[in-house]
Amino acid sequence: MLALRPVQLSDLPQLQQLARDSLVGVTSLPDDTERLREKILDSCASFEADVQSPGGENYLFVLQDLASGRLVGCSEILARTGCNEPFYSLRNRPFSSSSRELNIQHGVPALSVCQDLNGQTLLRGFHIDAERVRTPESELLSRARLMFIAAHPQRFAESVITEIVGYSSDDGQSPFWDAIGQHFFALPYAEAERLCGLQSRTFLAELMPQYPIYVPMLSPEAQACIGRVHPDGQEAFDILEREGFETNSYVDLFDGGPTLHARVPCIRSIAQSRVAQACKGSQIDARGRYLVSNDDLGGYRAIVAELDVNAEGPVALTPDMLTALEITEGERIRMVRL
């Protein structure tokens, strides 16, 4: 059985292996021991903090095979963007011009560096082993974060965003970066993303062009990257799209990947999650597959389980499920159907 839980410092070696295997562009998961150690300690402090409103807290989760102890994935929530550093993105909107003499109005799509998305909760750092892609465990890794938000709403903003990794070739070339960022930094795309993971996006973002970039002036290859998802990022996109997330007019600063946005009350795993009391059952006449979590904070756990859920009353869990969730009979659980 796999269970999602908060990261621990003892997870550092395995977390670094996940970082090595992660997709270029997942800058929140750097392959660097000290940077990952800082992230883990920051996450532990965030889970322990008494929070009444969202700030710069960072909640890092790992997906663990309970039988072997092996980590097979990780995901993360930043409670509020813009607290510790500005959150930069590119606004993709028409730039309008007109001529009264010729009676012509013309709108040209343009990209502008902005901080419009400051103040929102950010989902990031999603990575799962290749053999578990498009399985219920991928749903668990992504959506259990949303159930955590449902259990602790005071810790998060009223809207949630995520940046999906944009297109790059198998050899790490990004046409979007080559058309824009490459002109301001003598760095290939993969190296720029690596530096962002090790340090900050801010030092690069502050050197990006501060005036609108007219999209028709970019190469056709670069234009095709605007809002385009990397093939290995498609599952992350699809899961959240089914959750009610939608694309908006913002794209990633470096690779042009899409940004997804949703209001908290409109997110399926939050709006449709149900709270019930757990009871012990040796055998379950399973009627459906569910994501199940406790509502704890530092002891948060979530699993995938086959259950028989009635409209009212307690829900039977096997002893293995109770153990995986680290709860006893009579305690509260949260569920949402897969």
Task: Outline the structure in words.
- The strands form two sheets. The protein has a ten-stranded mixed sheet, sandwiched between helices. It has a five-stranded mixed sheet with strand order 13-12-15-11-14.
- The radius of gyration is 21 Å and the shape is globular.
- The chain has helices at residues 12-21, 33-48, 136-151, 175-179, 189-198, 202-205, 220-225, 234-242, 268-271, 319-325, and strands at residues 2-6, 58-65, 71-78, 89-99, 104-114, 121-128, 159-163, 213-214, 246-251, 258-263, 274-280, 288-293, 302-307, 315-317, 332-337.
- It has 338 residues and is α+β, with helices and mostly antiparallel strands.
- The mean pLDDT is 90.
Keywords:
338 residues; alpha+beta; globular
Secondary-structure element sequence?
Answer: EHHEEEEEHEHHHEHHEEHEEEEHE
Write down the overall mean pLDDT: 90
How do the strands of the widest beta sheet line up side by side? 1-2-3-6-7-10-9-4-5-8
* Termini separation: 16 Å
Task: Round the Cα radius of gyration to an integer and report it.
Answer: 21 Å
Count of helices? 10
Strand content: 25-35%
Low-confidence stretches: none
Helical content, roughly?
25-40%
Class of secondary structure makeup: alpha+beta
According to DSSP, the number of beta strands is 15
**Major beta sheet summary:** 10 strands, mixed
Tertiary shape: globular
Could you write a compact summary of the structure shown?
The chain is an alpha+beta fold and 338 residues long. Helices cover 26% and strands 29% of the residues.
Helix and strand topology:
Blueprint: E1 2-6, H1 12-21, H2 33-48, E2 58-65, E3 71-78, E4 89-99, E5 104-114, E6 121-128, H3 136-151, E7 159-163, H4 175-179, H5 189-198, H6 202-205, E8 213-214, H7 220-225, H8 234-242, E9 246-251, E10 258-263, H9 268-271, E11 274-280, E12 288-293, E13 302-307, E14 315-317, H10 319-325, E15 332-337
Helix pairs in contact: 1-2, 3-8
